Amino acid sequence: MALQYTFPEDFWWGSATSATQIEGAASEDGKGLNIWDYWYSKEPNRFFNGVGPETTSDFYHTYKEDIQRMKDIGHNSFRFSISWARLIPGGEGDVNEEAAAFYHRVIDELLAQDIEPFANLFHFDMPLEMQEKGGWESREVVDAYAVFAEKCFELFGEKVQKWFTFNEPIVPVEGGYLYDFHYPNVVDFKRAVQVAYHTIIAHAKAVEVFKKRSIPNGKIGTILNLTPSYPRSQNPADLRASRIADLFFNRSFLDPMVKGEFPEELTAILREHGQLPEMLEGDKELVKRNTAELLGVNYYQPRRVKAKEHLPNPYGPFMLDWYFDLYEMPGRKMNPYRGWEIYEKGVYDIMINLRDNYGNIESFISENGMGVQDEERFMENGQIQDDYRIDFIREHLKWLHRAIQEGCNAKGYHLWSFMDNWSWMNAYKNRYGFFSVNIETQERTPKKSAGWITEVSKNNGF
Ligand code: BGP
Q1: Which of 137, 212, 283, 313 has the highest CB neighbour number within 10 Å of its CB?
Q2: φ and ψ at 279, to 5 degrees?
Q3: For position 185, what pLDDT does the model report?
Q4: Predicted local confidence at residue 311, as pLDDT
């Protein structure tokens, strides 16, 4: 049967993970503590069912069989992150040789299976000592990160060609400094802006270091969670609210990291409210010189926005919601098992925006996925029948396909995630994998979607 949706040759089929979420072995072989290990030790009850990151899906020990499973389901690429606290305990100083050996083993195994490694340098996991120095609020930590990045390029650059400076850099800003769902649980807009700004500087420094090394066929980019902003109506107040939400949540990182420029309207708003970060001379040029060459797009759900119904208290502290309210569009399609909206066309809208406004940068879907609570309820004959996930992926792929037909430079699709894993405060609440994982026995079982994606990746379409 002819395929209706065929993807370009060498399309990247795969999945994404992160160190803290899959490795486990949190205190093995000299790994240092990161903020998650620490926060969990202090406040275990803030994590779903009191479960912390110490075990997770144990990839540290099972990587070999897991990579075989990736091969079995047709992956030709795979994203993992390198834990800063594992590689350089404390964040500065000597490399932990056992950690370096572990990442070499993972990379070698991927290459032996013809799976291209996509290495990410930071996925929410600040080493504890670096946080104690001020985390991303501190310029010293930015410099330590650049040294860590350089170490990674030096150690693994001969084997890994695709590199990413950050995953979703806005999330530690929102979680750690605005809405209290990541350590250090600060709620302070001005500090949040400083953290965001320094993350962008850290990205630029890592890119600069990377370019100096000139890794053969090497590319460096970043991974952003882009949430297209849709206004409730076309009236000017709703349109403005939506534009400002887009500025805060998307363009704040997208513009400096891809275009090398901070959006003027955003800078003007921050200036008006006395919220500009501290900047050093030369920063602007640094950011301009060191833009991403490759962009990972994490897309889960859109952001629907309306104009504010009540004016904010002018004497209260400045907050994002001075400018817009979120809007629950009637009739929107929801993921009933996670509570997020499903809007497949968002993928297309993001890609068209990148094509038209961001130089059609080489990009791919670096995360997309459907979280499901209590997924065991869909178990039949020993397998989770996740037809909902198959529909979810297929419908997003159709829109991605259309974007490619219309000239977008989208090169691949990675699901979040390869197997069920631990997720920040949600711990094991939402399951995302192609494989289910029994956390007690570490047994993996392919879900129905694993069989489906095998066919899709082998046929390069459906
Ligand atoms: C993304 C993160 C991932 C993962 C995913 C699912 O934002 O990059 O690390 O956690 O969200 O999130 P959750 O498990 O909270 O549903």
Answers
A1: 137
A2: -130, 150
A3: 98
A4: 79
Q: Ligand 1: which residue has its CA nearest to atom 4? A: 423
Residue 423 CA, ligand 1 centroid: distance in Å: 6
Amino acid at site 166: F
Q: How far is ligand 1, taken at its centre, from the CA of residue 432, in Å? A: 9
The DSSP string of 84-121 is: HHHHSTTSSSS--HHHHHHHHHHHHHHHHTT-EEEEES
Domain that holds residue 281: 12-430
pTM above 0.80, yes or no: yes
Instruction: Look up the ipTM and state it.
Output: 0.96
Tokens of 18: 């992160």
CA of 282 to the centre of ligand 1 (A): 35
Note the pLDDT of residue 1: 67
Confirm whether 158 is domain-assigned.
yes
DSSP-derived 3-state class of residue 161:
coil
pLDDT reported for residue 339: 93
Residue 263: how many other CB atoms lie within 10 Å: 18
Ligand 1 pocket member 168 (CB < 6 A): yes
Which of 303, 416, 418, 425 for a ligand 1 pocket mutation test, highest count of atoms within 8 Å of Cβ? 416
The active-site residue, picked from 367, 375, 395, 443, is 367
Residue 455: inside a domain, yes or no?
A: no
User: In testing the pocket of ligand 1, which one of 372, 423, 428, 432 has its CB within 8 Å of the most ligand atoms?
Assistant: 423
Q: Is 451 inside any structural domain? A: no
Segments in the chain below pLDDT 70: 1
CA of 76 to the centre of ligand 1 (A): 22
Q: According to the model, what pLDDT value does residue 317 have? A: 86
Number of domains in the chain: 1
Q: Is the CB of 373 under 6 A from ligand 1?
A: no
The DSSP letter of residue 341 is B
61 domain residue, yes or no: yes
Provide CB contacts within 8 A for 207, sequence distance 6+.
165, 220, 290, 291, 292
Q: Is 440 among the residues known to form the active site?
A: no
249 within ligand 1 shell (Cβ under 6 A): no
Task: Determine whether 453 is exposed, middle or buried from the number of CB atoms within 10 Å of its CB (0-12, 13-18, 19+).
Answer: buried
CATH number at residue 310: 3.20.20.80
Closest CA to 176 of 198, 146, 208: 198
Distances (CA, A) of 459 to 1, 6, 452: 11, 8, 11
